[in-house]
């Protein structure tokens, strides 16, 4: 398992995942940049992701859906707000309706991904910021903590390919 820590901070309204990979920063960046590699780990194993649009430049949007075991599709989007390849990516991540349009009934979260080379490995930190304690608790209840832990564990398989 590549996840080395998970920290939920209810005062700061954040959920932070730290993971370490036996690959260089450029290679780990590729699993964020390439939608076909991203699909292989973004969703938890029972909810695989499909990206229909993906670009990592400031102001760009990504669109995706995750397909559940019963065929249910949960749609989402990203709005990229900062990029400093290959070490920083920041984006808003939200739910979408059946047409892929942002669902305004659920607030988006902000995710910041940092990649750092340490002793020949890549340390990746993914920090998610929530707008309220209610949102943080709802997302954890929906399985975000467990899902992200499982998803990050799949990155090693992508890196080995």
From TrEMBL:
Pfam families, per database record: AHSA1
Activator of Hsp90 ATPase homologue 1/2-like C-terminal domain boundaries: 23-159
SUPFAM superfamilies per record: Bet v1-like
Family the entry assigns: Belongs to the AHA1 family.
UniProt-recorded name of the protein: Uncharacterized conserved protein YndB, AHSA1/START domain
Organism: Agreia bicolorata
Lineage: Bacteria, Bacillati, Actinomycetota, Actinomycetes, Micrococcales
């Amino acid at each position: 398992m590549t996840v080395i820590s998970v920290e939920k901070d209810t005062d700061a309204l954040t959920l932070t995942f730290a993971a370490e990979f036996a690959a260089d920063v450029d290679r780990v960046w590729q699993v964020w940049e390439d939608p076909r590699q991203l699909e292989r780990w973004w969703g938890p194993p029972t909810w695989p992701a499909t990206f229909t649009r993906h670009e990592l430049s400031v102001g760009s949007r990504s669109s995706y859906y995750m397909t559940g075991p019963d065929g249910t599709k949960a749609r989402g989007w990203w709005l990229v707000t900062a990029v400093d390849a290959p070490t920083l990516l920041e984006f808003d991540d939200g739910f979408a309706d059946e047409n892929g349009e942002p669902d305004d009934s659920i607030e988006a979260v902000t995710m910041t991904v940092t990649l750092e080379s340490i002793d020949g490995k890549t340390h990746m930190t993914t920090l998610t910021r929530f707008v309220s304690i209610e949102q943080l608790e709802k997302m954890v209840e929906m399985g975000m903590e467990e899902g992200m832990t499982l998803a990050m564990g799949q990155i090693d398989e992508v890196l080995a390919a």
